[in-house]
Amino acid sequence: MIQREIGRLARRMLREYPAAALVGPRQSGKTTLAKQLGRHYFDMEQAEDRLRLDLTWDETTRSRQLLVLDEAQAWPELFPRLRGAIDAKRNQKGRFLLLGSVSPALMKQVSESLAGRMALCEMTPFIFPEIGARRADDLWLRGGYPDGGILSAKRYPMWQKNYLTLLAQRDLPSWGLPAKPALTERFFKMLACCQGNLFNASQLGQSLGVSYHTIQTYLDFLENAFLIRRLPPFHAQVGKRLLKSPKIYWRDSGLLHALHGIQDRQALLSQPWVGQSWEGWIIEQILATLQAQGRHHEACFLRTSDGLEADLILQMGKSTLAVEIKLSTQPNPHDFVRLEKAAALTNATQMALICRTTKPVFSGKKIATNLDGFLRYLKTL
Questions:
Q1: Please, what's the b/e burial string for 116-142 (b: 16 or more CB within 10 A of its CB; e: otherwise)?
Q2: Which CATH number goes with the domain that contains 277?
């Protein structure tokens, strides 16, 4: 069984807090991990489990065993009872583990009822440190969902298509998305065409026949369901005009590729947008890895009106990294010239060019390396 990076963080949080919340997209492996952590499991979307927990509440919460509550946001009445149970034994750690697929719905209840009593961990589908460099291209092509093809290639891309259809028809409407399934699926495909580009809500709204504000609402839902990453632009007084729209990325590359009808690696490499796919995949692996390790960071990108850019500005403590991502096997010196100019605008302490090289180069504040080398480098900061 593949060990999940987030498992270490979840265990640590349960040693330090009475409760922890494990949030992330549907089918990313939350339930599998939670059942490894605790045997007492209840699914709050199931009426039978809610009744069973209600009838055995006193007995169950007195136990020193970890209590796992899946899709906790589906039963709002649970949270005041959790607060009372935690406060009755405030010094007892590791009592409750809550799982959720919709960040705001769960976090609203947590902030209102469990503030200061609970730690938060975000789980993603499989990521590079879990799969390894040998299967990195499989992870890029088919994404990281455990059932989506990374463990069994024949499931891709049909699994992804079914997953998105069910989200559009069942899950997103039940979570409150005010759009008909057919419109949601059109929105999915349009966002696939936006991969790595600046987000233009007005343009998308015109294409779908809805307002700018409606598009923003839809995007909020997809971001809160852990499907889309909105990377904000760098903001500072740098003496140049900065573009202020965020960039949009599908967080799982397998979903992106399925929306584009990509069947295999050869088809992927022949696409004109393959560079944006690679860029988004690299950014997601970096940020998801840091998140799983519990390392605080802030991320954005830089683009000026006259063309200077850095794909990722990563701030970690006292370190600021300006990162350029290239789908190439050899670093180009000209890429570093442009990156240096962009880095100077952000006061970056290091510069990194991430490509597919097999011969990483580390020279002072500059590095040219592959994803594996960059993730190892981050551990030294």
A1: ebbbebbbbbbbbbbbeeeebebbbbb
A2: 1.10.10
